[in-house]
Amino acid sequence: MSAEWVCVQRQQDECRRYLDQFKVLDHPLKQTTITVLESRGTRSKPTTAMDANGTLKASNTSTASLTVAALSLDPLNIAFDGSDPLSQFAKQQTTSLGKDPLSRMAAEQEVTLSNEKAEQTHSSKPREPRNLLELTLIEPWGPRRAAILSKYTTSEKLSIVTSFLSGGETIKPQTTMSEKVKYRLEQLDDFDESSVRQMLDLSQQEYVLKIEQLNHELVQAWNQDQRVKALKIAIQCSKLLSDTSVIQFYPSKFVLITDILDIFGRLVYERLRTKAEQVQPVGTPACLSENFTPEMVSESARETCQNWFYKIASIRELLPRLYVEIAILRCYSFLARDEFSLALGRLTKLIRGIGDPLVAIYARCYLCRAGMSLTLDQTYLRENLDDILMTYHTIFNGAIRSEIARHRITLNGYISLYLPALDWIVQGVIILATDSQLDDILQRCKEKKYPALLLYSMLQSSRPEFIASRATYFVQILSSVSMEGFSRGQLLRLLGGILSHTPPPCEQRMDVLLNATKTITSMTNIDEYVQCAEMWAQYTSQFFGLNEIDGFIATVLRQLTPNRIYEQHYHELQMIVDKVVSNAQDIHGVLALEHFLPLLDLFQKESIKITVCKNILVCYRNATHSDTSIISDPVVTNALMHISRVLNDSVNALTGEDERRQISSLICHFVRKVDFGRDFEQQLAFYVEARAVLSNLDSALSMLIHSVNRLATSTRRIVKGQHTQKTAAFVKACAAYCFITIPSIIDVQMRMDLYMQSGQVALLNVCLQHADSCFEAALNLIPSVPRTVEVDGKIHSTEGYVQTFAVNFLSTLVIVPDNPTQGVLYLLRLLLDVVPKFPSEPASAMVSNIYLHILDFLSVAAQEVYPYHIANVISNDELYGSDPKFIAEVNALCNTVCDTLLQHLKLLLESKALRSQSQLSLDLFVKIITGADLSVEKMFNLAYNLWSLAVKNQMEIEPKQLQIVLAYTEHLVTVTQVETQRQCLLMLLAKMKARL
């Protein structure tokens, strides 16, 4: 044996935290600076300063007695000299040109907004809107356009007739008129008939591609000054809108064609504006400004504009003549101020010549869209709506029914084709209408034979406040009128959505709910019923109490339970549950409803049921996240426990880590909310039930163990550490719960931490046997800890964790009394046995570091009085009373540990690991002079040899370490009470200084 360790008695404060007692004035990562003082004789360069008038003046800083400048010593700044990319980027932030694109864009936008604000402030009054679209009360056409293209699609084959695309079959001319008459009367209808082709069997994607090619051809022809060709392309595109052979695709075709016409109209207008010369009283002519008036337009420009309208007026067919004129309608601004209203009125009457009601209503839609971007006048809008109402009955006549039968679509499907156009027109009419005017329009719509389409547009376009104030009246209308060609369920669903966001007056809400529910439940079509119930579930849960919500759920169960109809409507049922839970004012009350859990039982498909249960817990967390509400109702607890069981059972080996984390977080939030107050036994019973339910989630089990430990400490706090027979039995039950539950957790490190915490809590409550069992179980897990673990995709070593765990255990072991059946310091011997079994790296210092901490523990264990205790727990200092046999055992363990460290030191010497060897020798030296009796010759010589070894390789360790250890030795000399120890320290100190 190389060491002969004898623990020395010492004061508790002799070496406590001496090595860490030095105060740190600055944060170690704070930037270091050097202060340079300039005296009077130091020359300084003149600088410039701006006076109050903005004039630059020279100034000299040499008049000041002292000037302070800070020079950075940051190693990164020294290395890069401020030229690294991030530093350069930071410097550029001070200039507007150097900002990143988003910052520069924001700065430019701020400048623009400030300029506009300055202009508005400078002007006497804000700019008045010039058309209806500028009122921002109408939904823009862009979103509607995208919705139409995505909704109205087809799988049927399409055809296109054009003379400007290659391919297809040539169409022979069917006229025998002379070339001269054809040139004069049909100049614009003559499309070079030898090249007119019909392309058949086009898919929807191919058709859209051909339309885009026509758009490209139009722009290219215009840029090449081929105006007539561009006009012919616009005419041909307009003629395509008369084709309703694939009727379900017609709304999308309308959008594609009118996009081309919009481009054509914009090209014509911009060409006229740039070519026209503004008439000015004095000076040279200039191009027209944006806000020009007809009086500013020259006569030649007027003639050019009129020529365009003459060309269009000569188009023989009505539909292309109509659409092309609407496309260039804005050009009337070159002719007269009141020309817009006259043209819009004339074109409104012209549309009456279109026989097909579908083609006619979309022509009216295009006219209204163009007019709303030009004028504030609504006369033409009301005339178009009047014409629609006058001819509304033609949509349902026999010829139309035969036509839709030929196309093999339903009447409902055909009626839905009118919605985009009708919605836009109705929206324009009612945008500025008063409530009385809206009442009049509603009455006229109601009087029609089949008013469903009109009522749907009214609901979709009217102000929500108008509908909410007349909610009872609307429900009555929708419950009584005929719904030919449209679904009553669609209308009630739309009304329910509106009222959910804009509630009716309080006195109407109950009547609305009763009447609507009566109508909905009377529907024979289950699909319609479920769709309506989904939307009215939100209205019911938002504005009514638990009784009404429970009644609504009961109605849903009665409708869907027979013949297992619910299996076909899982999605709608899921939406009903989500809306009820997320919108209810009292979520605890909803969970306790009589019919809520039976509604959940309808979800027989596992994947859907898991989604529903997860959404319920998400809604519960969102509703209770910021409040201090607790759960004590057993009905609510059972409901949430049932939901948690479903989610726990869904977790298996294939479940992703993120999914596990989400489910655990939701369940843990629920468990934390359960609180039965001072009824700790019921609280523990709940945790026992939760343990059986949450067996697949480590995080949930860990949270349960923490909760039970908190329950035990709360019990101790209430009894102020003096347990009665009842409370002692209860805390023992808590300790047993933790000890039984921890093995169910898969993660080894989590188990070790929980064993440690549970043992500490058991020790706090004087449950010594339970504490020993937990500590022993934790130590036995050390060999099972993997060498590395993956955290966030990165591999980390576990050696640091094991070392930290061992130090924590040793600090706890100070106050743990020995088990009389296991021998002296049984748990420490177990630690010494299992630490070498950990699969550490060959060159790792983990084991030696743990052994060094063990020497600290043994030094404390040999003292007469330990530094800290737990009330009512008799530690080893009282248990053994410094018995010589006990001290002998401690000294023997110290010798064993010290010998192991010396062997490790020898291995480091053989492997030439000088840095690790020097550090270990210095650390062991500190432990010896702190806890060992230096009057023993072997220990004195060992200490000096360790110091000599550290000094020999002092270049391998931190320069200040030797000085710190030397100062610490001097400190021990002054505080040591044992004279022999002090004399030995003096001798050692002299040798240390001589060796250094």
How would you portray this structure in words?
- It is a single chain.
- By secondary structure, the chain is mostly helical.
- 61% of the residues lie in helices and 5% in strands.
- It has 44 helices and eleven strands.
- The strands form five sheets. A three-stranded antiparallel sheet has the order 5-7-6.
- A hairpin with a 2-residue loop joins strand 10 and strand 11 (794-797).
- Helix 21 runs parallel beside helix 23 (526-543).
- It is elongated and about 125 Å long.
- The two termini are 28 Å apart.
- Mean pLDDT is 83; it is low at 19-83, 87-99, 116-124, 167-178, 180-185, 190-194 and 278-283.
What does the largest sheet look like? 3 strands, antiparallel
Number of strands: 11
Structural class: mainly alpha
* Percent range of helical residues: 55-70%
Radius of gyration: 45 Å
Whole-number mean pLDDT:
83
> How many helix segments?
44
Separation, N- and C-terminal Cα atoms: 28 Å
Residue ranges: pLDDT <50 for 5 or more in a row?
19-83, 87-99, 116-124, 167-178, 180-185, 190-194, 278-283
Strands of the largest sheet, in order across it? 5-7-6
Q: Estimate the global geometry from the Cα principal axes.
A: elongated
Q: Classify the beta-strand content into a percent band.
A: under 5%
